[in-house]
Amino acid sequence: MTDLISPDLIGSLNEQARAAHEDDLGxxxxxxxxxxxxxxxxxxxxxxxxxxxxxWGVGTGGTRFARFPGLGEPRGIHDxxxxxxxxxxxxxxxxxxxxxxxxxxxxxxNALRQEAAQYGLGFDAVNSNTFxxxxxxxxxxxxxxxxxxxxxxxxxxxxxxxxxxxIGKQLGSQSLTVWIGDGTNFPGQQSLSGMFSNYLDAMxxxxxxxxxxxxxxxxxxxxxxxxxxxxxxxxxxSLIAAQTLGDKAKCLVDLGHHAPxxxxxxxxxxxxxxxxxxxxxxxxxKYGDDDLDSGSVDPFRLFLVFNELVDAELRKAPGFxxxxxxxxxxxxxxxxxxxxxxxxxxxRAYVQASIVDRKALAEAQAENDVMAAHxxxxxxYITDVSPILAEARRRQGGAHDPxxxxxxxxxxxxxxKDRPVxxxxxxxxx
Length: 430
Ligand code: LRH
Ligand code: MN
Fold this sequence. Notes:
Helices cover 47% and strands 9% of the residues. By secondary structure, it is an alpha/beta fold. It has a six-stranded parallel β-sheet. It has a three-stranded parallel β-sheet with strand order 1-2-3, with helices on one face. A two-stranded antiparallel ribbon has the order 6-8. Helix 3 (77-91) links the parallel strand 1 (53-54) and strand 2 (96-98). 45% of the residues are buried. Manganese (II) ion binds next to loops.
C-alpha cells in the first residue's frame, strides 16, 4: 500500500486530539445509551460505510462561463488516482472511484487496476460519455446520441457504451452509468415519443452486452444541456426505461437533477418500493444542477434521503443494493478538501439516520402523533455524531481531522512542483 501522507504525521495529529476526542465520544456514548442505542454498533456501521469518488471531481470544475484551475491540477487519471488515494487514506470512507470515459482512457486497464489497488482503491460504476464529441468521431452528438434521429449516431453511441463495459470488466467494476444530455431546445425540433423509442432501442443493445452480474444505472436529469425537453428528464421516464429493459436496469438519483423543492426522499422511497433504486450521485444545490458540496446547502434533505435508505436497509427491502457515489464540481475550493468534507457529511447523514428510534417512530406514526414522530426524526438529525465519524476514521488509520492533516502534510504544494500551472481561459465542468 502506498501512503501519500506520512502515517507518522497522521498519528501525531491524532494523538494531539485524543484526550478531547475520547471525552466527547464518552459523553455521546452515554447520551446514546440513555436512548437505548449501542455506541459500538453505530461505530461499526460508520466504519463499514463508503462512498465512491468521481475521478472527474478531483480536478477544479467550472461552468459554461469559466473554469479557474488551481495549483497542482491533476494531469490525468494517474494523478487523479493519487489524489483519490489521499482522500481514502485520510477519511477511510472512500474505498472506490467512479471513472468516466473517454476522460480516463489509458492503454492498460489491468495496470490501472493495480495502480488503484496500491492506494487501497477499487472501481465503482463506469460512466459513458455521449454528451461531447471526440476528435476522431464520425457522427456528432450535437442533436443527440442514444436518442438521435440518426441510426448511425445511435449505433456509434451504443458502441461507446459497450466499450465502457469492456473497460469496466478489466477494472473489476460491475455497473455502467448511462447519463445522456439528449433533448431539444425548440418545440417541434424532435418527436418527444420518437426520441424515447430510439433511446429504448439503443439501450436494449447496450443492455444485451451486460455481463450476467452487471447492472445498468439510468440517470435522469430535468434539463441542461437541453433547455426545452430532455429525453430522460425525471424518475418517471427513467423508471419506464428500467422496467422496459429488464432486471439489470435501475434508476440512479443525482440529487441536483430535480427542480428546486422536489421531494427527493419520496422519489427514493418509490424507487425502493419497486426494487429499482440504482444508487446516488450525491451533491447539493440551491437552484439547478449546481454540483455543490454534499450537505453544504441543505443537510436536512440529505438526512431525509438517508432516513429512507437506512429504513429500507433495516427492513431488508427486496432488491435494495444501492451504489453510493459523489458527483460534484469544485469551482472555488481545493477539490480534495471538498471531497473529504463531502464524504464526511454523507457519512454523517448515514450515521444520523442509523440512530433514529424506528420502533418509537412507527408507534407514533400509527397513533398519528405527528409532533412525536417529527421530533423523533429531528432528535437523530440534531445529534452531533462527529465523535463517531472521527472514531471510525481513527480505528482504520485515518485522520481525526482529514482537512487539518491534509493541510499539515502540504500535499497540494508538493504535487504542484510536478504538475504544470494551467494558464489561459477555459470553461466547462472539467
Ligand atoms: C450530468 C452528470 C452525469 C455525469 C456528469 C459529469 O450532469 O451528473 O452524472 O456524467 O454529470
Ligand atoms: Mn451525475
